[in-house]
Amino acid sequence: MIKAVIFDMDGVIADTEPLHEKARNALLSELGLDVEKISPTAIGRSKRAFWGDVVSVYSLPHTADELTVREFGLLMDIAKSSGLRPSEGLPDLLAFLKERNIKAAVASSSDRNYVEYILSLMGLGQYFCATACGDEVLTAKPAPDVYLRALSLCGVKASETLAVEDSDTGAKAAAAAYIPCVAYDVVQDEKLKQKFDACSFRVHRMNDIENIVQGVNINRYAI
Q1: Res 218 pLDDT > 90
Q2: Is the pLDDT of residue 183 over 80?
Q3: Can you tell me the distance from the alpha carbon of 73 to that of 13, in angstroms, rounded to the nearest whole number?
Q4: Angle at 206 between CA 210 and CA 184, to 5 degrees
Q5: 65 near 41, Cβ under 8 Å?
Q6: What pLDDT score does 43 carry?
Q7: How far, CA to CA in Å, does 105 sit from each of 38, 98, 155?
Q8: Which residues make Cβ contacts (< 8 Å) with residue 172, sequence separation at least 6?
């Protein structure tokens, strides 16, 4: 029986990836760096790892943590004016889980202030019993740290839980925590398509997760 569903943030809760790119590019430009060359190397990595490499390679007078905090600040300003909305079907899925007393949580590599801001901006905070964030654990995804923290905060076992991820990095983190993972596969750009080898299920719509939770036609969603 599923007692909790743990959601990744960016790309799952909302399509925030373009906002991340915009904030990252603005900061790179502010630092006088080559945006086109450097920005793509951030894909699939934590911000602190990305900025750590940038600081090292270009001998910047900043720390990775300082630049990460600055990027999140820019990101929240951009999000505020973006008209950001939840992923299609997500509010209905969260209401479905709440009605059945199934816990919902977030496990994100992003910092807490950003995660809480985005959830509040979209009016979703009421649905989540816990949020585990990247600035609260030692190692970012694909390490399992943030998922293990989410399990602890929810008070559930991995075997009683589903994770929802849109990237191979996140799916590997869920698998490392022994949590069955649902691939939320909505990316259209072939260059950004993920393999989802670590996932047990694949969906293209949020409401299909309701059936997986209930075990209805579960073979239909198997990878």
Answers
A1: no
A2: yes
A3: 19
A4: 115
A5: no
A6: 84
A7: 33, 11, 11
A8: 141, 142, 198
Distances in Å between the Cα of 13 and the Cα atoms of 108, 152, 197, 206 are 10, 21, 21, 10
* pLDDT score recorded for residue 97: 98
* Global confidence as pTM: 0.94
Return mean pLDDT, the chain.
96
Closest CA relative to residue 177, chosen from 136, 149, 135: 149
| Farthest CA pair distance, the chain | 56
CA gap 181, 168 in Å, rounded: 10
How many other CB atoms are found less than 10 A from the CB of residue 34?
A: 10
Summarised one tens digit per residue, pLDDT across range 104-139 is 999 999 999 999 999 999 999 999 999 999 999 999
The structure tokens listed for 26 are 């603005």
- Angle, to 10 degrees, between the axis of helix 47-58 and the axis of helix 64-80? 120
Residue 33 CB contacts under 8 Å (≥ 6 apart), including other chains: 54, 58
